[in-house]
Amino acid sequence: MACTVVPNAIFKNGNSIPMIGLGTWNSPPGQVAQAVKDAIDVGYRHIDCAHVYQNEHEVGEGIAAKIAEGVVKREDLFVTSKLWNTFHRPDLVEGACKTTLTNLKLDYLDLYLIHWPVGYQEGSELFPMGPDGKTFIFSDADYVDTWTEMEKLVDAGLVRNIGLSNFNAKQVQRVLDIARIAPVTNQIECHPYLHQSKITSFCTANGIIVTAYSPLGSPARPWVKADDPVLMDDAAVGELAKKYGKTTAQILIRYQIQLGHVVIPKSVTKERIASNFDVFSFQLDDADMKVLAGLERNGRICPESSAFGHPHHPSINMVVTATLVTLNNGQKMPVLGLGTYNLLGQNCIDAVKTAIDAGYRHIDTASLYQNESEVGQAVREKIEDGTIKREDIFITTKLWNTSHEASQVREAFDTSLAKLGLEYVDLYLMHSPVGATVDANGATVLTEVDYVVTWNAMEKLLDTGRVRSLGVSNFNSEQLRRVIENGTIKPVTNQVECHVRLNQKKLIKYCNEREVVVTAYSPLVRPGTTFGAEEPTAPKHAFEDERVLAIGERYGKTPAQVLLRYLIEIGTVPIPKSGNPERIRQNLDIFDFRLTPEEVRSLDSLNTGQRLAQQGQCVELVKKAIDIGYRHIDTAFLYENEVEIGQAVRDKIGEGVIRREDIFVTTKLWNTFHDPQHVEEAFRRSYDMLDLGYIDLFLMHSPMGLRFAGYEYADMQPKDADGNMLFDETDYVETWKAMEKLVASGKVRSIGLSNFNSEQIERILATATVKPVVNQVEVNPGYDQRKLIAYCKERGIVVTAYGPMGRPHRTTYGNHNALGDPKVVEIGQKYGKTGGQVILRYLIDIGTIPIPYSTNDERMRQNIDVCDFKLTEEEIEYLASFHSARTIPFLPLKSHKYYPFNIEF
C-alpha cells in the first residue's frame, strides 16, 4: 500500500484526529468485530461507533483483540462514540457514556458526540414511537443543557474531546454561545449529492472540523428505494475512477479529504476496507473537484423524518434547496422554482427575497407579469448581501406574444434583461405559440406569424452569451415537434399548466422522449376557491381530497407539499406561486420524502383533464365586454383575476375605446381581512393588482369574518384539521369603520356591502360616517329579494344582483328556475328577446343592477341589450311567482354568528 501513515486533522484545542476512519453504522451483526480487526491490520487508527448502532460490544472485542496481539496500543487508536437521543436529559449523560465505555472495554473515549439535536422520550426504547407508529415521542431536554454535561465528561477524564453530529448552523451557534469547552467537530452527512456548503463553511469559520458520514451515498441504507439515484453509479464519478485507475469509492473518499473533511466510510468486507484506505497515493485536480461539486442535488439520505415536528430538528431554520435536473444542453435547473405571476411591487420583492433566503434557486417571471424589475431587484440585493452568487440562481423570463416577429425578438429580450438588471438570464421561453400585434388604434389582434420563425430568431440570442437556454411555453405536442424539426436548437423545457387535476401525462411522456423537461405552472390548482364549490356533485378541491390528506398524514406533510411532490414524481418541475413566507418555505420542503408507486397511482385518479382559466382568457373577455358596451366590471379578491381585469381596462384605455372615468370597477374585501388591522393592506393589494388609479366601489364581501391566515389566495379558506371553516368574530361594524378610512385616501370613490341582511345593514347605518351605497346580493326570479330591495331603496342603497339567472346549470337548493320556462320564452318572443334578456329586464324593473356572468360573445351582447323594453306589471308578477329559495346558501358558514340568511331579509 502506497501510504500507511494517515494525515491528521488538528482540532482547535490542539488534539488531532485521523482523516479517515472506519464507520460501523448498519454493519451486519456478527461481522463488526472482524471488520474492526481487519481495519486495524490495514492501518486504520480511527474507529467511529455509536450506542444506537447496537454493536459497540463487537467494536470493543475487535479493539481488545488487536491490543492483546500487540498490533496497537490504546493510545494509538482514536475511538469515537455518540450520546443517543434518549439520554439528552442531563442526569442521564454520564451513565450513557459509561455504558458505552463498558461495551467498548475502554477507559476513555477520544471523541464523544451528541448524536442529534433532538431528544427522545427517556427509557429503555431507543426509538420510542407514538401511537401513530410514524413519529417518535419527544423529550423536553434542550441540547444546550446536555452539552454542559458533556463538558463534565471531559473534566472527569472519561472523554478527551466532545463534539456534535447532525447540527445545523444555528444549533451549533447556540452551543458555542454557552460552551465552556467548544465542540471540536460536527459529524454530518456529506457527499457530492449533498455538499452542505453552508454548514461546512460555518464550521470552518468557527474552527470546527467537519466529519463526513455516508461519503459513498450509503447505497445499502435500509430505506433505499429501487429508483433512488446511486452516487457510486454516477457517470461523472465513474469517469474520474477510470482517469485515476481507482474505484468510485476511492474517488469519493479522496474528494472529502481534499475538502478538509474527516471521512468515515463503512464496510465489513476486508478487501473493500483496504481499498477505501488506499486514497493517499493520488490527488484530484481542481477541474475534477469542480466536476464532483457540480453533482449537488440536495440528495439527503438521513433526514431523521420520524422526528419532524421536534422543535430542535435540524431541518428547522436549515436552508433547503431543490434538487437539480440536467437539461438537454447540459445546463442544470432546480426542480422546483418560485412562480411570480400576480406578484407585484414590494410584495414581489419581498417574496423573491424570502424564497432565496429559504433556499429557492429558481425564479420564474415573464414580460407579461410586469414584475421583471422587482424580481431583478430582489435577486441583486441577495447577491449584494452575500446570500447567493449570480451563478447560484436560475432565472427564467418569457417573450410575450406581441413580439413574435423576428425583428422584434432581440429588442424584447433586451428590454426584459434591462428590467431584470442582470448580466444574463438562464432560460428564455416563448410564452405561447400564438403571435399578436397592436394595430394603429392600439388594439391587440392576432397575427399569423409562424412560431417557428420566432423560434429561429430566439436561437440567435444564444450567440450573445446573455441567455443560457431556450424553451417554450403552452405548446402542444405537434407545435413542439415543428419547433424541434425546424430549429437548430432543441427547447430545453415546455412550461405548461400541470397539476393533479390536469396531470399532462401524455405530454410529459412525449417531452421526455425528446429530452424536453416539462415545467408545471399552476401546480396547486389555484388553492383559493369560491363557495360555488359547495355543490354536492362538484369534486372537492384537491387540498381536501381524502387521498391527498391520507398521504400528507403519513409523511407529516401539507396537501400542497403532497401535490408538489406528486408533480416531481411524474417528471415535472413545478413552480408554485406564493407571497406568504411560511408557505414559500413549506413549498420547498418536499425533498425529504418520496411517494410510493401506489400513492402516485392514487393521485393519478384525481386527473379530470379540466384546465383552469387561461391567464389571457379573462383579459380578452373583459376587453370584449368593453367593446360591446359594458362600462361596469365587477370583480373581487376572491375571484383571483384582479390583475387581468386591470390589464384589460388599461388596454382599452390605451386604445382610446374608453377613458378611465367611463368605466366603473368594483372589487371586494374578502372575509379573512375583517380585522381592521388587515383592511388597508388587503385593499392595497387589490388596488395594486387592478392598477387603475382608483377603485370606483369597494365592498365588504360578506358580514362573516374568517380567521386571517395571510394575504395569499391559498389563505382564503382557513380550515381546521376536520375541514371546518375557522371563524373570526370581528364585528363587521369595526371592519366598516376601517373601510371608511379608505375613502379619505382618494383611492376608492365609494364603499358598500355584499350579502348583508336588513338587520346587519341597520347596524352599519347606526354608526356609519360614510353610508354604504350598494348591497350586492343574490337576486334572480327564483329568489327575488323584493323585501330587501324595498328596505335598501328606502335608505338610498342600491341593490346589485349577482347570480341573476339562478344558476340554471347547477343542482340548487329548491330554487325555481325561470330560464327556459315556456311562459318566459313567450314573453321574450313578444319583445324579440331571449328568456335570459327577459330575466335581466325583470331584475332591472324591480330595482336592481344585475351583473350577469358569461364567456360567450353572443350572450354577452344579448345581456346588455335589455334597455329598449319594459315588462308589464302582469309579466313582472309572473316572474315574481318563481320566488322560492337561494341557490347559494353558504352552508359551510351556517354556524357563523353573523350568518346573514337566518332571517327573511
Automatic annotation (TrEMBL):
Q: Does the keyword Transmembrane apply?
A: no
Tell me, what is one Gene Ontology molecular-function annotation carried by this entry?
oxidoreductase activity
- Record keywords: NADP included? yes
Top-rank taxon of the source lineage equals Eukaryota
User: Which PROSITE patterns does the annotation name?
Assistant: ALDOKETO_REDUCTASE_1, ALDOKETO_REDUCTASE_2, ALDOKETO_REDUCTASE_3
Query: Which Pfam family, any one of them, does this sequence belong to?
Result: Aldo_ket_red
Per UniProt, the keywords (alphabetical) are: NADP, Oxidoreductase
Q: Which residues cross the membrane?
A: none
Could you tell me which residue ranges the NADP-dependent oxidoreductase domain spans?
Answer: 20-293, 336-607, 618-881
Name the family the entry cites. Belongs to the aldo/keto reductase family.
Do you know which PANTHER family this protein is assigned to?
Answer: ALDO/KETO REDUCTASE (PTHR11732)
* The protein, known as: NADP-dependent oxidoreductase domain-containing protein
What organism is recorded for this protein? Anopheles stephensi (Indo-Pakistan malaria mosquito)
